[in-house]
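Researcher: First entry.
Model:
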Amino acid sequence: MSDEQVCEFPKENASPEEIRELLCSARVIAVVGLSDKPDRDSFRVASYLKEHGYRIIPVNPNVSDVLGLPAYDRLEAIPEPVDVVTIFRRPEAVPPIVDDAIRIGAKAVWMQLGIVHNAAAEVARQAGLTVVMNRCMMQEHRRLSQQGGCSEPPPS
């Protein structure tokens, strides 16, 4: 494995305006790799997003429920439309998740802080999805809120 594959940097990322639009318009967020352990980043970020009005859908084949919500073993098992697929998995696991996100008609793929996969990101962009890499959704939401942007997703 080359150094670039081990430690990629985003070649292209969503602009601040695209991130704002995504956070302000999204309602349903599938969290791939959501752990049921409260000390994990995935749990903390999903808890925060749930508290701020987003509908969270856990995706993890190793748990039955997280945050009082049923967990699905894969994206394609989710019985409703998903706006954003946020990923808490190692970079090498990203390509099939992106493929599934495209298949279910998600509008965006968000790779959390420390997660970058440029080839998968390009596949998602070519399919019309917004792509965010190496950014924490909770931190971006807090930053947006401090700047007077949307503090809650739009009402249903």
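Researcher: Second entry.
Model:
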Amino acid sequence: MNAAVYARLRMTDPGRWRAAALAWRRWAATAGALGAEFGPLADRLRAGWSGPAGTAAAAVIAGFRRRIALFRLLCWRADQVLSEFAAALDRALRLLGRARGRAEGAGLVIDDSGTVRGHSEELPSVVADLSAALEIASRADAEAASRLGVLTGSFLSDISDLPGGNRPACGDGPSAVRQWWDGLGHAERNLLLATEPGWLAHTGGIPVADRDLANRLLLDDQRSDLDRRIAQGDGAARRLRNGLDAVSARIEDDTGLRPYLMSLDVSGDGRIAIALGDPDRSRHVLTHVPGMTSDLESFGGELTRAGRVADRAAELNPAEAASAVLWLGYDAPDFVHEAWSDRQAREGGEGLRRFQEELRATHDQTPAHLTVLGHSYGSVVVGAAAARPLDADDVVFVGSPGVGVGSAAELTVPADRVWSTTSKSDVIQYAAVGPRSLLHDLPVAGIPVAGPVLAFGRPERDLWFGPNPSDPAFGGRVFTSQPDAGHLGYWDPGRPALDELARIMTGRSPITRP
């Protein structure tokens, strides 16, 4: 046992590292505000100053704006490193706390050097937790120091030219893109991010941390574009602007896992993919697909639900990092008549397959355990995606109206890795009734007094988009959720469904059964 590491870990405060990360984030915001002032100046110069002198002045301003963008990238990269370091220390401290609790309960003593003294059946478990905690802390410390050391050198390197060589073609898959990106130097990557964020933000195969930087750089232009649309009387732009403000506030949050802005589209109702924790550096990754009425303006509640699963997973298994992704990369139905069709689910399924392929391609080192969860209409999207090869180790359906297939055997994920739950109080199993069930229930409902109860007072097996996946006859694995969960309470803290979701996310079987 390393006594020095143990002593430092006992005294460490991850909150101090988060505060340092937040300071870097604020420097990026300050620099962004300064850079934004040069945009109108450059426009006025182009309009009113021609000739060699005007061209030279415009070039100076463009170069200055580029250096501001590079400085912001430096700030955000430092923020990423320090935030991930804090998250690793959180996990190490959870393991340390668990070891102390076990030791105290078993009559063991952990001395100031980290040595466990005494005899008990719990001794191996206590030692294992201590060793894992120190290993996580030591590895995180070395990695953070190395990554921070790279930042200074890459920022001060020559930034005069864009990287040459062949860029990925439009049809190249994410693995080819990742291979190309890995072949670039740090300074080359930063220069591309500073000058071409729009391209990199939407290119699958670029690592999540780098796409986060590209999307953050684009926020100012997206905000300005929406403001112009609002000034022209565009009501939809106002809702999107509210959503963009919520996104901006969320990615500045310094509590919990750091948000990574993987994609953002401010057209239509708005689309977003945002992760809590870096999926590329996490052992377990959950992709949460929301259902009807989900849009950019309301993304915050869905992200909170996804984050609760990752937080609970970290509590249950602190030895391994977990990340949760909210994927709203499809046009979710706004109205009931839209939700009766599977068109948007099929289109969303194609996008979800591509997204999962990208997650698999960009992950560092050991392949991640990938779980895809669909809630409500989102389960129809996941079903459409999983009907063809999908990069997922587990799929989960929550409060589902059917998933578009007749049984778990029709999905490409093994049936014993297909999970589903529907609370007894979830209206979905009574409202989204399939045609066959309606033909059966309507005559029964005509029976005096007891008819309506007999017809509609029980969960239906035949739902609008196929058999109820929470019926054991579907062939998947059904897990328990609290009876009073309704349609949105599956993620309530301290309740059975959240524990079960976290266990599935970390590759463990749920411990309860209906």
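Model: Note on the second entry: Residues 282 and 321 are 5 Å apart (CA to CA).
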